[in-house]
Amino acid sequence: MYYYLDISFVNQDITAALFKNHIITSIKHVFGEIAAAIPFDVVKYDPSEIRAIVRVTQDHYVKFRGSLTLAGYYQGKPCAYIVHKVSPLLLSLLGDSRTYVH
Amino acid sequence: MVIEINPQQQRKDNSLTIPSPTFYQALLKKIQELHGDFGAAAIREGFAAKYFNERTRIAIVRARHGPHKLITSVLPFVKEVDKKKVSLVTLYTGATMRQCFKFILNHQQKKINEICSTLQSEEEKVAIKEALLKFNSTQTLS
Amino acid sequence: MESVKGYFDYNVTDKCISNNFENIAKQLYDFGYHTIAINQTIDESLLEESISEGKKKKKIERQDIVPSPIDAKIIKGCDKLKILNRLTISFTTQDIINRIIKSPNYRKYHIIAAQPESQQAFQFTCTNFEADIFTFNPSTKPNYKMQRKLYYLLVERGVHFEIMYGPAIEDSTKRKNIIATAHMYHSFGKSRNIIISSGITNSFLIRNPYDVINLGLLFGLSDGQAKDAIQNNGRNVYMHGSTVLEFVCWKLY
C-alpha cells in the first residue's frame, strides 16, 4: 500500500536528483541512518514550479511526513516543504471533494 | 527495561576499565547516528548506565519500556568505546535490576562450572569460585 | 462570549510580528489557522532593570514592567482571523509574579503562559498561579522534575501543556529537547491537555495543520489527541483564558 504526496519545495530551483537527496538528508538528521533507507520514489517532478509527486509505503508514511515537516535548512538557507495533498489513490490528487468547484 | 551487556575487547584478555559516563556517551552517539534526533530524544528519559563490573566485563543499562527497542537494535553496531575496539553481546533483557542480578549469578555459575570441569585440584576450584563471585583480583589458571 | 473556530496557533512570537505582520497573518490564515495569539515574553531581567532604575530616583516611581499588548489591526482579506494577545512569564522565583499581577497591563492580555525555570517555580505554578498554558524553553534541558501528581494537578486546574514545533525545525538540540519533553509528558500524563503551537520567528517555519497533526503523532500523542491538540484543546484554552479574565474583572468591581 502506497501513499502519494503532492509536495512543493519553497526556496530555490533544484533538480530532481538534488530534491530527492535533500529529502534523504533531512530524514537522516531527524530519524537516523536506519530510517534514511526508507524507499520512496519521486513519481513526477516539475522543475519550474518545484512541485513533485512522491510515493511512500504505508509503514513509513508517518516518519517520512514528519521529517518533511521538520526539514529546516537547505545548504544554510531556510526552506520549507509544503504538502498540498496526500492520498493512497493517485487519481484523487487531481481533485477531491474539498477543492472541487461545483 | 534493563539490558545486560558483555563487552569483550579484541586485544586484551582480562579487566576492562570503562568509566560509566563514556559508555553512556558512546551509546548515545551511536543512537544519534542510527536513529537520529528522534531516537536520541526518545531514550534520553530514563536512560542510565547502571552497573559495570571490570573483572567480568558485564554492564547493565537501563531504559524506558518503549524506547528500549531502539537501544537493543543499536547494540550490535557499537564498535568503539572510549577509543578501544569493542564488541558487545546482549545477554539478557529484564524488567527489574533484581532479575538481572539473578541472571548474572546464574551466568557466572555456568561459567565457573565450565572452567572447573577442565581443572583438577579442588583448591583451585574453590579459589576461582570465590574470585569470580566476589569480583576480587584475578587468579592465574594453571 | 465570542466564538472561536478554525485551527489554533497559540504562539506567534513578537519578533515575527514586528517585521511583516500582514504577510505572516495572511499566510497563517491561508494555511487554516483562524485563531492566533501574539506572544510577548517577560523574564526576570526586566525586573532587575526596573529595580536598579528605581533606586536612582528619589521618589519610587513604579515602572510598568509588563509591556502593553501589541495592537493587532484587522487585515484586509482576513476578516475571520481572530488575534489574541498572550503573555509568557519566565521565572525562577515567585517574587516577580506579584509585581506582574498588580500591573495594569496584565489584564489586557487574553492568555497567560507560565514558563518556570526551577523546581520552586514549578511548584508555585502547580499550586497558586493562575496560568492558562504551561511552557518550557526548548534551548535548555528542563531544570525541574516532572511528577505525575503535579501533572494531574495542572490538568484539573485546566492548564494546557504547550509543545512548540518552530524551534524543532531550526535547530538540532532544540529538536531533541522538544521531543524529549513531549515524550516525558506522554509517559507522565498520557499526553492529556496538550496543545501544539508554532513559536515561529519567521514565515518559513509555518506548516500545514495536517503536518502539525502528524508531528503530534511523533510527539507520542494518539491520532485523536493530535487533532485535538490544535483544535479542541485550543478552544479550551481560549475558554479558560476568558473565564479567568471575567473573574478578575468581577473581583475589581
UniProtKB/TrEMBL annotation, chain A:
Superkingdom per UniProt: Eukaryota
Pfam families linked: RNase_P_Rpp14
Annotated keywords: tRNA processing
GO cellular component: multimeric ribonuclease P complex; nucleolus
Database matches in SUPFAM superfamilies: Rnp2-like
GO biological process: tRNA 5'-leader removal
GO molecular function, one term: ribonuclease P RNA binding
Family per record: Belongs to the eukaryotic/archaeal RNase P protein component 2 family.
Name the UniProt record assigns to this protein: Uncharacterized protein
Organism: Pyrocoelia pectoralis
TrEMBL record, chain B:
Principal location: nucleus
Pfam families xrefs: RNase_P_Rpp14
Keyword vocabulary terms for this entry: Nucleus, rRNA processing, tRNA processing
Keyword RNA-binding: no
Gene Ontology MF: a single term: ribonuclease P RNA binding
GO cellular component annotations of the record: nucleolus; ribonuclease P complex
GO BP annotations listed: rRNA processing; tRNA 5'-leader removal
Protein name, UniProt field: Ribonuclease P/MRP protein subunit POP5
Annotated organism of origin: Pyrocoelia pectoralis
UniProtKB/TrEMBL annotation, chain C:
Signal peptide: none
GO annotation terms (biological process): tRNA processing
Protein localization: Nucleus
Primary site of residence: nucleus
Keywords assigned: tRNA processing
PANTHER family: RIBONUCLEASE P PROTEIN SUBUNIT P30, RIBONUCLEASE P SUBUNIT P30
Family, per entry: Belongs to the eukaryotic/archaeal RNase P protein component 3 family.
Name this polypeptide is given: Uncharacterized protein
Organism of this sequence: Pyrocoelia pectoralis
Lineage of origin: Eukaryota, Metazoa, Ecdysozoa, Arthropoda, Hexapoda
